[in-house]
Amino acid sequence: MKKKILILSVLFYSSLFAQLKSNLEIFNSLIDSSAILIAENFADKNTNYVLTTNLPAEYKALEQQILISLVKTGLQIKSDSTAAETINYSLINAGVIYPEVLRNGIFGEYILKRKLVLSGEFTITNQNRFYSADKFSYSVTDSIPFDKTTFVETDSIPFTKGEKPSPPFLSGIIEPVIAITTVVVTAILFFSVRSK
Fold first, then answer.
1. How far apart, in whole angstroms, are the C-alpha atoms of residue 146 and residue 172?
2. pTM confidence score
3. What are the backbone dihedrals phi and psi of residue 161, each rounded to the nearest 5 degrees, phi first?
């Protein structure tokens, strides 16, 4: 019986702490969203396509994910250039912004707001004639612990890193002063009320 309770409590507590998604994983899911937009609204799943990507050098790490995402939607992407239709996929911006640092409660840890932005455009051409074109822009905002940013950033991929704001200096001083003052006032009240 004790073993069952121990196992259940370990499972319960381990489910409370969610694993952080890395910035690269979030960019991959945003690319999945753009591929779904192309597949559902503009492309025909019965047609063979050739994929051409127009990416700045710093975004080349996403090139394979673009292909994977389009194939996952059911589009038939061919590697040879004999297909009649071409999907031209361009990324304009991909980046991470850490806009502010917050405190989780009065004495809690620092939390960093994280915003990831991905924008670009695509065209679908048939024998050098454009018949579908659109732009896309996606963003995700969440919060992560301030000291966990090294776990979500990929050092070898620059666009997965953002500049972190420093924690507020004044709140780091004021909160301990409030705590000490509260303890002193409580002790004074306790002994003054008790002595009467």
1. 14
2. 0.77
3. -110, 145
